[in-house]
Every structure is written in C-alpha cells, then in structure tokens.
Amino acid sequence: MSIWFNGEIVEDNLATASVLSHGLHYGTSVFEGIRLYQGKIFRLEEHSVRLKNSAELLGFEIPYSVAEINDAIERLIQHQQLLDGYIRPVAWLGHESLALNAPGNKVHLAIAAWDWPELFDAEKRHQGITMTLSPVIRNHPKAVPVAAKAGGNYLNSCLAMQQARKAGFDEALLTDYEGYVAEATGANIFFVKNGALITPEPDRFLNGITRQTVIELARTLGLDVIARRISVHELADFEHAFLTGTAYGVLPVSQIDNLNYQPSEITAAVIKHYRNLCLA
Ligand code: PMP
After folding, report:
1. 110, 240: one domain
2. Quick check: CB of 200 below 6 Å from ligand 1?
3. What is the Å distance from ligand 1's center to 265 Cα?
C-alpha cells in the first residue's frame, strides 16, 4: 500500500512515526474518514475543511491548505487506482516534546486509502443492525472540543463498541452527560415517527457530514426534520431508527436492547436517495 506522507507518496514501510509522538501518547491527533464511490470522492471539501478545523480546535495547525489536502487525496487515489474505497487522512503532533502543551511539536499529515469492504452483510444492511444502550457516555463538551474529529475523543467510542460486541450487539447507543440520546460509537442517529425524522441536537457530539446531507435530502423529500433533545424513555415510542455516517452510509436499526423496530418506508426512501447522491 502507498501512503501520502508529509508531502510525498511512499510505500507504507517508509511512512513511519516516532514511538515518542505526542499524538500517540495523548491522543493529540485528528483524522477523517472519506468514501470514494465509483471513482468519485463524496464531500471531499467538507472533510478537508473539518480536518483543518479539528486541528485548530486542538490548538495546532496542519501545514497544508484545504486545497493542498484535496489535491493530495486526489493524487493518492489516482496512484492507488482505487474505484470504491475509504480514505483516511490523519494529522498528529510529533515527538519533539512530550510536555502536555506540546511546545513547538511538528505537525505531521499522512493519508491512506484502501478498498472498502461492507461492514455488515446484505441482510443486516437491509433489515437493520442491533444496538444496546451503553453505560459509557459521550464526552462533556467542556472536557473536549466535541466538534473535533480528534483521536483523543474516541476512547469512549472504543470502550462502548467493545462492550456492545461482547454482549452480542452490533453497535452501542451513547447518551450525553445529561442522559439524553446522543449518537452511536461512530455514527449519528435518526428516529422516524408520524412521517417525520427526529434527531438529537448536535451540540454535544460530532455533527456528521452524512447527518447534514441526510437532513437536506429528507427536506427535499418533503419530510419534517426535528433536531431536539431526546430522552431514552422516548425510544419505545419511535417507529424506526437509522444511523448515518461515512462508514455506514444510512444504516437501519432493527433493535435497541429489547425494543424492536419494524422496517420503515421512510428509511428505505432515505437510503435510496442517499445512495443516488453518492453515485451522482
Ligand atoms: N459521530 C462520530 C463519533 C463519528 O466518528 C462519525 C464518523 N465520522 C460520525 C458521527 C458521522 O460523521 P460523518 O457523517 O461525517 O462520517
């Protein structure tokens, strides 16, 4: 595999970082997940802008412009001759100091891209995945910048996912610091009720690019979309649920613990139109 590494495309054995990297020790890294559908990169500009903003929220600057990052990604895709894939840029603080304030640490940027395997089989993608309400909560917005897609923000996602899988579920549903429904480990959540979409207000977790795309798309389909606080007690009142994210696309949810959701025509319509948009 080739990697775009600090400005050059090299073989992956040459794209190496120090074991004393600040990013490795303290999670001072930022990353993106981007999809390539039939040779077209979905929402590249938005992802590159978010990457730069995530770094700024952590107090460091990626030494490449958005245009340069877009260019690097395009160049790597060409080089790898990928058609359908996943692209992972990651920027991190280097090894110059392990002091917490990272005085003068160099900022590195690497980009990898690979063929994309579907994460769930066709039946699950159609019928829906299972989720469990996690005892692990989302980060408090005063503890970390929740709008940053930062390595250090993902520890609770990793733990919640490990626990959910051990308990036999596909995904975990995390609540915020006040106990309201927030999101999955790496995807946003929507609910269907009375012909409308209801989704948590995105001020306490990452407001995903897929989430924003789905809201626009749903409104063009004439659906009402309401973003508000959602109590866990309401989960039983919803007719259906689905997740949105770069990795999952739009993914139906068939179960949250002992609550079962029936297939929904609204979810099916959102999935179809989202897919068309990705391939457009
Ligand atoms: N929340 C979290 C915690 C995520 O990791 C992701 C994946 N980036 C999302 C939501 C969905 O974001 P997007 O639609 O931009 O992929």
Report:
1. no
2. no
3. 24
40 and 132 share a domain?
no
- pLDDT given at position 215: 98
**Residues 136, 71: one domain?**
no
Out of 139, 173, 206, 244, give the residue to mutate to test ligand 1, the one with the largest number of ligand atoms within 8 Å of its CB.
Answer: 206
Q: What CATH number does the domain containing 169 carry?
A: 3.20.10.10
Instruction: Give the C-alpha separation, 34 to 52, whole Å.
Output: 14
Name beta bridge partners: 125: none
Say yes or no: CB of residue 213 within 6 Å of ligand 1: no
Residues 75 and 9 in one domain: yes
Does pTM top 0.70 for this prediction? yes
CA–CA separation, 280 vs 274, rounded Å? 10
**Closest ligand 1 atom, residue 46 Cα:** 15
Residue 188 lies in domain: 122-279
How much distance in Å is there from the Cα of 236 to the middle of ligand 1? Answer: 25
Q: What's the sign of the alpha-carbon dihedral 178, 181, 184, 186?
A: negative
The two tokens of residue 48 are 């590159």
CATH code at position 82? 3.30.470.10
What pLDDT is stored for residue 172 in this prediction?
Answer: 98
- What are 261's two structure tokens? 């959701």
96 CA distance to ligand 1 centroid (A)?
31
Residue 179, pLDDT above cutoff 90: yes
Q: Which residues have a catalytic role annotated?
A: 149
Encode pLDDT of 164-173 as tens digits. Answer: 999 999 999 9
pLDDT band at 258 (very low <50, low <70, confident <90, very high): very high
List 251's β-bridge partners, or say none: 243
Residue whose structure tokens are 């995904």? 171
